[in-house]
Amino acid sequence: MENIIVEKKPNGVGLIQFNRPKVMNALSHATMNEVVDGLTQFQGDADVRAVIITGNERAFAAGADIAEFQNKTPIDMLTAYRFHQYEFIRKYPKPIIAAVSGWCLGGGCELAMICDMIVASDSAKFGQPEINLGLIPGAGGTQRLARAVGKALAMEMILADRKITAQEAYQFGLVNQVAPVELYLERAIQLAEKVASMSPLAASLAKEAVLKVYELPLDDGLEYERKNFYLLFSSHDKEEGVSAFLEKRKPQWTGK
Is the pTM of this model over 0.85? Predict the structure, then answer.
């Protein structure tokens, strides 16, 4: 790994950290491929039940690596499969938390929004500044941002390059919590540990069901939820969870 650090933390947490400080953790194609490799590694590790993606205090990721856009044609971009990594992350079965500090722009903002939850430092700033390059967001920014903060603010951020602070992002429902810079990663780890302490099967199926909100009408979404609910009745974790509750003890999840 040349562009990221992959670390297995205690208590069921995996950590992926961008390591390109000289370019504000710009998301090159190679960097995103490494993120996929790191997530694949954690996907095959039953001990890892939640994953954190983070940068450093100065920048989560300040956008795509713009140097890769120069002199590129539509066919170049199409055949490079530039956004397949984002689709891999979108469909990832384990919960992912973005720990964001400093700049979170363009592809970095889109990546954070793909994650299931966001913990932001009080220095975080979110934006979609692609319009300054004569471009638009291409990794889901127009769709996810509007769903997260509403049409009017999304339009201003995308058309007029408005940046929003961590507190504004919290106010509009883009992030889960805001913490001081010196504590934001610790808070993200605490949240990840809480998620990792739950049944991994239930967490995965719950994540699937919540994400269907963006894809299905209410009736279809409710049907999807109920099928996942019924499916868990075939699991050892359901039996363990119910027994532990009735016996007033802590459940021992197996993910089966």
Answer: yes
